[in-house]
Each structure stands twice: as structure tokens, then as C-alpha cells.
């Protein structure tokens, strides 16, 4: 698995998705939603690093996880309306999957510390 932090992976994903979105025309509602959800993954992961408590840390990571799922949803929509091709979808979706798995692992570990 990648040794990069969730935040680092999320920044890379956001930069890549921003470039993809810049090339899409006529789908501004979907593009805007995708940009919001994608950028929120990294923002919440970064904010979690400075959480006031373990519960706050878990909450921020859970928000990032929800945003990751939402990002995957908008990517699928863009694929189905032919705004992105299958290759782009698979590449970016795989990166979302890596982030999602890391978020789930971090949340699980943090919840065990809470007990």
C-alpha cells in the first residue's frame, strides 16, 4: 500500500480531478459537486490532524470518508454522461479507493483507542 498520508493522497487526487474538471464543458453542476467533495476529503483529513480530542479526530475522518464516497458517486455520474472516459474513471476511482481504505483503517484504529 502507498506510504503517503491520506492528506498527501487527497491533495494529489484534488489536483488531478481539478485538471479533469477544467476539461469538461457543459456539466457545471456535476463538476462543481465533484470539486467540492474531492477537496473536502483532504481538508477534513488535514483538520483531523489538529483535532481537539479523539472523538473530534474520528468525526473529521468520518466526514472525509463520506466525501470520498460522494466523490466516487460524482465520478460515476460523469462517466455515465460521457463527460470522462473509462480509463480516466478507473484511474481516479482507484485513487479514491486507496484513500477510502486508509480512512477506514485510521477510523478503526482511532475507535479502538477510544475504548
- The average pLDDT is 94
Query: Main β-sheet: number of strands, strand sense, barrel status?
Result: none
Helix-strand pattern, N to C?
Answer: HHHH
CATH 2nd-level architecture:
Up-down Bundle
Global geometry = elongated
Radius of gyration over C-alpha positions, nearest whole angstrom = 15 Å
- Percent strand equals under 5%
Q: Number of helical segments?
A: 4
- Stated plainly, the CATH topology is called de novo design (two linked rop proteins)
Taking the alpha carbons of the first and last residues, their distance comes to 27 Å
- CATH homologous superfamily designation: 23S rRNA-intervening sequence
Question: What's a concise summary of this model?
Answer:
The protein contains four helices and no strands.
Amino acid at each position: 500500500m502507498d506510504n503517503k498520508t491520506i492528506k498527501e493522497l487527497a491533495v494529489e487526487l484534488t489536483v488531478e480531478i481539478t485538471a479533469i474538471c477544467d476539461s469538461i464543458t457543459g456539466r457545471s453542476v456535476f463538476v462543481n459537486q465533484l470539486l467540492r467533495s474531492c477537496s473536502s476529503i483532504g481538508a477534513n483529513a488535514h483538520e483531523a490532524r489538529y483535532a481537539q480530542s479523539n472523538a473530534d479526530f474520528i468525526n473529521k475522518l468520518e466526514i472525509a470518508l463520506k466525501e470520498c464516497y460522494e466523490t466516487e458517486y460524482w465520478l460515476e455520474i460523469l462517466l455515465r454522461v460521457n463527460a470522462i472516459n473509462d480509463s480516466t474513471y478507473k484511474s481516479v476511482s482507484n485513487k479514491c479507493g486507496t484513500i477510502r481504505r486508509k480512512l477506514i483503517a485510521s477510523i478503526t484504529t482511532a475507535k479502538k483507542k477510544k475504548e
